[in-house]
Amino acid sequence: MEGDAFSGLGNGTQIDGKVVQTFQKSFVQVQHILDQNRLLINEINQNHESKIPDNLSRNVGLIRELNNNIRRVVDLYADLSSSFTKSVDASSEGDSSGAMKSDGKAGHKRNRPA
């Protein structure tokens, strides 16, 4: 994954640098959100242990923020999965004319539910 393209997809399909850059950007976003979640969880735990009513009330908002962050991570991973599938399909488009591939399998696309 260090170069502008990689071919570790089993069938030798190459993915260009722009796609890799998009994936890296998404993974950085995910990591940032996960780092935020770690801080939120620490604060939630401290507030819970303190048993101070104002801190416990504050946890309601913090837990909502945590849940929203988790939804964002799920959405980012879903987008990554979709983008990856599209880029693999696009890069192997020339191979999917129904002819046999080098692995002996017919070149049929597999449809995934959205």
UniProtKB/TrEMBL annotation:
Belongs to the EARLY FLOWERING 4 family. Its main location: nucleus. The keyword Nucleus applies. GO terms for biological process: entrainment of circadian clock; positive regulation of circadian rhythm; rhythmic process. Residues 14-95 form the Protein EARLY FLOWERING domain. Pfam families: Elf4. GO terms for cellular component: nucleus. Residues 83-95 have a biased composition (Polar residues). Residues 83-114 are annotated as: Disordered. This is Elf4-like 4 isoform 1. The keyword Aminoacyl-tRNA synthetase does not apply. It is found in: Nucleus. Keywords: Biological rhythms, Nucleus. It comes from the Eukaryota.
